[in-house]
Design goal:
By secondary structure, this protein is of the alpha+beta class. The chain has 4 helices and 7 strands, in the order E-E-E-H-E-E-H-E-H-E-H. The strands form 2 sheets. It has a 4-stranded antiparallel β-sheet, with helices on one face. Strands 1-2-7 form a 3-stranded antiparallel β-sheet, with no helix packed on it.
């Protein structure tokens, strides 16, 4: 898949966005929420965590709008009280750069105009 002049190759299929979402929920609802989250096709990882947040999720999408849609689905799940969203950055030498998910193919300025 090509996205803004970039060739996208991912172990998750045709995705260009990877986002981590930390979730807070009503105590004792964690198991039910994890079960519901794991049924969403865009959620590729979900785990309970200790400390300030209760649940960690990893979400993938083809375009930013996909992430917005899944966030909307997540926030509607009964028992979720708060979400904190962090989009993964490419090009900083992290594990996301080693997968390879995005490989520069060529930059054509006219494509952005």
């Amino acid at each position: 898949m090509e996205f803004l002049g970039l060739q996208i190759n991912s172990k998750y299929g045709d995705v260009s966005m990877i986002t981590h979402i930390l979730i807070n929920c009503i105590p004792s609802e964690e198991k039910n929420i994890v079960s519901k989250l794991s049924k969403l096709s865009e959620v590729v990882e979900v785990n309970g965590v200790w400390e300030k947040h209760d649940i960690f999720t990893k979400v993938v999408g083809k375009v930013p709008g996909d992430i917005d849609l899944v966030l909307s689905k997540i926030r509607k799940i009964k028992g979720i009280t708060n979400t904190y969203t962090m989009e993964a950055l490419y090009g900083q030498g992290g594990t996301i750069d080693k997968e390879p998910i995005m490989k520069p193919q060529c930059w054509i300025v006219d494509k952005l105009a």
